[in-house]
Protein 1
Amino acid sequence: MTAPDVRVGFIGLGTMGAPMATNIAKRGGFDLSVYDIDERVTRDVAEAAGARGAGSAAELADRDVIVTMLPTSAVVAEALLDPRGRSRIPAAQGAVFVDMSSSDPVETRATGAALEGNGYRLVDAPVSGARTRAESGTLTIMLGADDEAAAATAIPVIEAMSERIFRTGGLGTGHAMKALNNFAAATSFVATAEALVAARRFGLDPAVAVEIMNTSTGQSFNTLKVFPDHVIGGQYATGFALPLLTKDVRIAQSLEAATGHDSPVCDAVVQALEAALDALGNVDHSRAYEFWDRR
Ligand code: NAD
């Protein structure tokens, strides 16, 4: 007799969630139901992945593991809990929730406590690597959990999305690490953009400047990928939205405040991103370069 399939629910089928859910379906050994607030997206992803499409999050009540890949902590809490802290998804006792969104670690702990009050367990497992690595199943995943049994239940599902899993510590540590990584990445993005604006205004070709940085010490993920593939030719299609990057650096800023040390660099990066966000709204984050260049 073979083991029954683990019943997995997946909420949030956007840029990242769609390919991540598809990889769970491809792995086999899982009975997958997917849900997005956008009905058309639910239908399309369910059909492409060979999964069941749910009409609401509450329909995922028969799932053993429920994954969220949503924009913010507030959206995650709203999707999972009613205003009185009761679960919107009447799952079986002991069900494991896995928040793979880039959420605020302090809010993650609050949501975890509320879910625990309903008899459920929460682990955090945010990812890095954009859509391409979500598609190829090579994301970096940071797993935080207070409960080892819950982590052990979540791991086979997470492994369907990538085997590059780092166990970071207790609940919220994955989300803390993710925000700090994105703060470092955003800093290099803002600093490189600032350097390239100055380069261009002084008569240098930004494309050549990026090539020089890539064989010099200014090299980073941004100079290797973001600027040559998305900024220099004006494609602006990294798939990572400006509001999401700004949210991540704000999370890092409040995390730094909570640890009681000054954050002058983080403060400056937040300010630069917020100015671009105010002017541009919901655009690809790489487009911020254009805004800073025009100012
Ligand atoms: P996205 O906006 O493309 O997708 C979010 C999806 O959630 C959308 O399809 C939306 O309809 C759905 N949704 C919103 N509210 C919902 C609700 N209440 N119930 C069900 N579905 C709901 O965002 P994304 O780029 O896929 O990012 C998701 C998370 O992953 C974010 O926290 C982001 O910061 C993080 N992240 C993004 C990237 C990237 O490159 N895009 C990389 C790593 C991590």
Protein 2
Amino acid sequence: MSGPLHLWRDALQDLGLVGLVPPPAPGAPPAAGTSQAAIPPPPEAISRGSRLPLPSPSDPGAFPPPETVAAAATLEDLQNCISGCLACPLGAGRIRFVFGEGSPKATLMFIGEGPGRDEDLQGRPFVGKAGELLDKMIAAIGFQRSEVFIGNVVKCRPPDNRTPTPQESQCCLPYLKRQIELIRPRVIVTLGATPLRELLGVQTGITRIRGQWQRLEMLGGIPVMPTFHPAYVLRQYTQEVRRAVWNDLLAARKWLDESPQAQQTSASE
Ligand code: URA
């Protein structure tokens, strides 16, 4: 296919109207302007094509009911139950659902805002530039990425990386809360203002509140250390900002090393 016809096909594909134009014959070279995607689209991305019927609220994958979410007994169960979610408008725009990753027994959990472009493409949290910095932050306090758990308030990428709306965040929050219940972290580090506002209801600006312990009223109370989002640190790469984040991370590490539960665990070993 060449000339205006392939432009038409590309435009139709962009609109999700794939399949109206017959695919090229087997063995035919790819049309000019089309790229061979390095990462194959996940199965759920196919459902964005408008030829497929829209899910109904009774579709358990698209709108996982609260009781199913609450009944998920493992992170794997939970992921299976929610990864087809279309309960808010972000679901229809995602390439991949970004569940979060790390140890299911993590003592330390990091919570960011929501996936960006790289995360949407790979289906993993914090894999772009901000993720590289987060990896360094994690290593700086003596952990490997696989030993902590990294999650987000929303699991699907907001368009143009905007802040998720309160409605989108609240729609996704039961998933994050179930993750916390299953992991039972001893400390949570929130990254930026969004997780603090949406999970704890704290409206104070992050510059004022970072470094001050908060408490999440779940599982008898979980200490929460608010710090700057790594993307902010990259934008404001000053000694002051970096030192602030370092102090916040050290406080979290110290709590893990010195809090009563740590002493009890080591005494019983
Ligand atoms: N920013 C976030 O808040 N979360 C990610 O997963 C990536 C970037």
